[in-house]
Amino acid sequence: MIIRHRLRKAFHPRPGLPGRGAQRMPRASDIILVMMAGLLVVVCAIRILQG
């Protein structure tokens, strides 16, 4: 539900910032969330492979 809310907000440019909708810079919190999700996938894959 949080991811759906973030995705819905990401595609709507903020009012007051003309022309910046297509090239929105990712926030540090977005990058951290993506890195944590990738780390979780790697850890799960290692645990599955080890048995």
What keyword list fits this structure?
transmembrane, mainly alpha, elongated, membrane, transmembrane helix
SSE order and pairing:
Layout: H1 2-10, H2 28-50
How is this structure best described in words?
There is one protein chain. With 51 residues, this protein is mainly α. The chain has a domain at 27-51. Helix content is 63%, strand content 0%. The chain has helices spanning 2-10, 28-50. The chain is elongated, with a radius of gyration of 16 Å. The two termini are 32 Å apart. The model has no long low-confidence stretch (mean pLDDT 78).
State the helix count: 2
What is the overall pLDDT average?
78
Structural class of the secondary structure composition? Answer: mainly alpha
Beta fraction: under 5%
Query: Which sequence of SSEs, written as H and E, runs from N to C?
Result: HH
Largest sheet: none
Tell me the span between the first and last alpha carbons. Answer: 32 Å
What is the general shape? elongated
- What's the number of extended β-strand segments? 0
> Helix coverage percent of residues?
55-70%
- Spans with pLDDT under 50 lasting ≥5 residues? none
**Rg from Cα:** 16 Å
